[in-house]
Amino acid sequence: MKNQRNQKNNMLFRTIMIIAIVIVLNLIFSNFYWHGDLTENNIYSLSPVTKKILNDLDDLITVKVYFSKDLPTNLALVQTEVKDLLSDFSNYSGGRIKIDFKDPAENDETINEVNMLGIPKLQFNTVSNDEYSITEGYLGMALFFEDHQEVLPVVQSMDNLEYELVRLIKRLQKDQPEKIYFVTGHGEIDLDTDLKSFKEILGKQYTISNFDLVNAQSIPEDVNTLVIAGPQQDFSDHDLYLLDQFLMRQGSLLVLNEGVQIDDQLMATPSAQDNLLNFLSHYGIKINKNLVLDSSRAMAPFSSGFITFSIPYPFWPKITQNGFNSDNVMVNKLESLVLAWASSLELSTSDENTQIIPLITSSPKSWTQEKNYNLDPNAQYDFNTLVLQSRPLAGFVSGQADSYFQDKEKPNLGSSAENNFINSTEQARILVVGDSDFMKDYFLRSAPENLLFAQNIIDGLSQDSDLINIRSREITDRPLVEFGESQKNFWKYFNIFATAILVILYGIGRSFLRKKSNFEDKLI
Question: How many angstroms separate the first and last alpha carbons of the chain?
Answer without folding.
Answer: 49
